[in-house]
UniProtKB/TrEMBL annotation:
Keywords: Cell cycle, Cell division, Cell inner membrane, Cell membrane, Membrane, Transmembrane, Transmembrane helix. It is a multi-pass membrane protein. Part of the ABC transporter FtsEX involved in cellular division. This is Cell division protein FtsX. Belongs to the ABC-4 integral membrane protein family. FtsX subfamily. It comes from Thermomonas carbonis. The chain crosses the membrane at residues 37-60, 187-207, 235-261, 281-309.
């Protein structure tokens, strides 16, 4: 009988705990909606603090993708001597494919190179003036070699080929891009930490003002024996609502920026013969941003309410 009573009491306490959570969620949201302008100001400041590092991170991701699309910059171009015919060029390509430091070899015949040059408007007229036969005779066979390891070592070894007229390897700009991307990634982390701390302070100060306005109510609850968790819970959800609102607004701002920049950037890339398109934030990272923003608001409210409760806790004699 006692066990049954104990189980009923535990179930009742758990039900009351769930009810208070539900009440705190709804009540905290109601407090935000009753003061829309103050809420909008707080959410707006937090949204700017979140949107800046998030936007920079999206830019870095697009630059990384651009770097991946120009992977051919790692390739080493071997221009064979003009007297090398197609059969000999095929044999050289097969020999290079068997090397351990070579991932892929693509043979570009003079006919194929001529077609690629003719596709460019600025060179088509020059080819017509020179004559197709003369232009084809002036173009050598080219081997585009993709390295399996260090492309610099591969380029040096390919220069020793007796059939190579010239070896071209222009990867300096890509190495600089990689260095800038590494620096940008570190800068994003630092900026996110600083602005995240700023957002934490903003929501903490806002919750502090709300606590001050409800000081008498909190005092009555403490006199009635309410636990710290009971008193803290509505303010935690208040901070979480601030964070979720700021995260949603930051995502909205980034979406508008993406819509505004997508078409001009695509047009600019097309003029350079590229199909690069600006990508926004995928769904899963967007959900992660919302969760992180809500957690940030929750933590800010938790720090402030915890400090207040420690200051107002009665001193035991």
């Amino acid at each position: 009988m006692n066990e049954q009573a104990s189980a009923n009491a535990q179930a009742s306490r758990f039900g009351a705990w769930l009810d208070h959570h539900g009440f705190s969620i709804v009540a905290s949201l109601g407090r935000l909606l009753r003061k829309p302008w103050a809420t909008l100001l707080t959410v707006g400041v937090m949204a700017v603090a979140l949107a800046l590092p998030l936007g920079l991170w999206v830019v870095m991701q697009n630059l990384s993708r651009l770097g991946g699309e120009v992977q051919s910059s790692r390739d080493v171009a071997v221009f064979l001597k003009p007297e090398i015919d197609a059969a000999r060029a095929q044999a050289i390509a097969a020999t290079l494919r068997a090397r351990g430091d070579v991932a892929k070899v693509e043979l570009i015949a003079p006919e194929q190179a001529l077609q690629q040059l003719r596709a460019r408007d600025d060179l088509a007229a020059a080819i017509d003036a020179l004559g197709e036969e003369a232009a084809r005779a002036a173009l050598p066979s080219v081997l585009r070699v993709s390295p399996r390891g260090d492309e610099l070592l591969l380029a040096e070894s390919l220069k020793a080929l007796p059939d190579a007229e010239r070896v071209q390897h222009d990867a300096l700009w890509r190495e600089r891009l990689d260095a800038w991307l590494r620096f940008g990634g570190r800068a994003v982390l630092v900026l996110a930490a600083l602005l995240g701390l700023g957002a934490l302070l903003v929501v903490g100060n806002t919750v502090r003002l709300d606590i001050q306005s409800r000081r008498e109510e909190i005092g009555v609850l403490q006199l009635l024996g309410a636990s710290d968790g009971f008193v803290r819970r509505p303010f935690l959800y208040l901070g979480a609502w601030y964070g979720l609102g700021a995260g949603a607004l930051a995502l909205g701002v980034l979406t508008l920026a993406w819509l505004a920049l997508r078409e001009p950037l695509a047009d600019l890339a097309a003029r350079y013969g590229s199909s690069f398109a600006l990508q926004g934030l995928p769904p899963l990272p967007a959900l992660a941003v919302l969760a992180a923003a809500g957690l940030l608001g929750w933590l800010g409210a938790g720090v402030v309410t915890g400090h207040y409760l420690r200051q107002t806790r009665p001193v035991e004699r």
